[in-house]
Design goal:
2 copies of one chain form a homodimer. The first copy, chain A, is an alpha+beta fold and about 325 residues long. Chain A has 2 domains: about 140 residues, 2-Layer Sandwich (60s Ribosomal Protein L30, Chain: A), CATH 3.30.1330.10; about 150 residues, PurM-like C-terminal domain (Phosphoribosyl-aminoimidazole Synthetase, Chain A, domain 2). Chain A has 10 helices and 13 strands. β2 of chain A pairs antiparallel with β3 of chain B.
Chain lengths: ~325, ~325
Amino acid sequence: MKGTVGELGEFGLIRELTSRLTSNPAVRLGPGDDAAVVAAPDRRVVATVDALIEGRHFRRDWSTAYDVGRKAAAQNLADIAAMGAVPTAVLLALVVPADLPVTWPVELMDGIRDECQVAGAAVAGGDVVRGDTIMVSITALGDLRNREPVTRSGARPGDIIAVTGWLGWSAAGFAVLSRGFRSPRAFVEAHRRPEPPYHAGPAAADLGATAMTDVSDGLVADLGHIATASGVRIDLKSADIDVPVQMADIGQAVGVDPLHWVLTGGEDHAIVAAFPPDAKLPARWRIIGEVLKPAGTPQVTVDGAPWDKAGGWDHFGGQD
Amino acid sequence: MKGTVGELGEFGLIRELTSRLTSNPAVRLGPGDDAAVVAAPDRRVVATVDALIEGRHFRRDWSTAYDVGRKAAAQNLADIAAMGAVPTAVLLALVVPADLPVTWPVELMDGIRDECQVAGAAVAGGDVVRGDTIMVSITALGDLRNREPVTRSGARPGDIIAVTGWLGWSAAGFAVLSRGFRSPRAFVEAHRRPEPPYHAGPAAADLGATAMTDVSDGLVADLGHIATASGVRIDLKSADIDVPVQMADIGQAVGVDPLHWVLTGGEDHAIVAAFPPDAKLPARWRIIGEVLKPAGTPQVTVDGAPWDKAGGWDHFGGQD
């Protein structure tokens, strides 16, 4: 495929993008009309949106278009799963410069399509417009299948905190890439393409989760949202939080406590939830803490003390 | 309200924006969790997304933030209506520069909220990120209430073409603004803030519409999508297409055939549909043409001939 999106034109690009999509029974009417029609058998639809900007959320020299597509879809599909719902469809709003090679949005769409397939969803529609900076905004939809949505506000003192999926891998990969390295490959891959445990969201709802979220901003920050919404304190036990040996090696090489990546690294989209203390959790869930009555302001502590280096990712703040 | 969005920070801005929203029974769980939950009583959800970029789709010196919000919401809510569905909720992805005054996104949100209210919908969630250029992407959701979706592909030879809503008003207003004028006010207002006839979409479905779309790119261009999807020719009768006297006056003043605005001007979001010839249409629908067997390529003609000056809005094409 040759040329730029400007040469291909809006309608040509849309044709090219939609021709690559696969069908899914949940998408009753796909791209090409005023709107899509998506199955919502539960009579409620779960919906979320996120926007990614080039230079801020991804770099073209660090990630392929395909990986950006996988990641952009993953972060939204994980939000659906973290409500206890099953992803059904995504819609894409894409801003592309006219001089961008056509291969870029095409590979992006392939990545979105493939990540949707992993989660059991499909692309239902979208919009493509021209702009100076690449922007990828994805709306994900999901179905609760008669489950009640698991919000952030239901954690109760006495609950346990458990997590499944990867923690800190993307942050360690980012640290490696920032220093100009391309290995260890497992961490670089984890930064480029997260693997959220989509099935774990509805499974946690069935296991009685009282509050749940996916780890997009970092474990301490995202559990902080649960602590605030539920009016509780959450205390994590560092001894129960696994730091992979290879991650410890990277930490030593770059002079960072790898526990910091595990506690504050976002973008892996692990699923973390509060459960009643008697919940029977499958082996892939690790119990990492407990829910306590708040001592003053609701907050997250690690071994009883605030995690000083912790903090959420503020998109307008100092980090960039 | 003082300061910039950079000074307020991401979470402060989100708090400010969500505090202004109103509730709606369709929004079961609003902003503040991993995802929203929206009622979908029909067991299907209609979904669409559009992105607007500053400088390309709006100008801050021509439109207030409030008007941009009204317009951005309107164009998506109109797409929902044009499927025969009732709008239920929207999600907003917003990109804002750090130096933007806080009042801009706040007034934008007020506009989105108020336009949603006109259409019977509400804001269910969103995402705010920092970027160099303002980008407003809105996802709209709707419910079919047991109606079948009215697509673009069902028009049959013998059907009539009818339209309701405004045509060419936004284009005439744009012509006025482009020449540095701020009046006639009715047309400038129409450019800044369209008034789609939301109720007409579901009503047209009930009246037996065989194909439907909203006029976002221009009457001839949007009917062209119906002609192509349905494999038919659509012939419009210029004598049946009303050109308001005031629009004719502007046309004369700026040297443009006002019929051109009516036939090719987009953004008013009128609703145009094909109906069986015996459909009993209420007075606000004007019959403006008929559906014929295609003579060669499916197309739209005016009084039997192609409308030479017509053409869709190609976002990567020459127009800007």
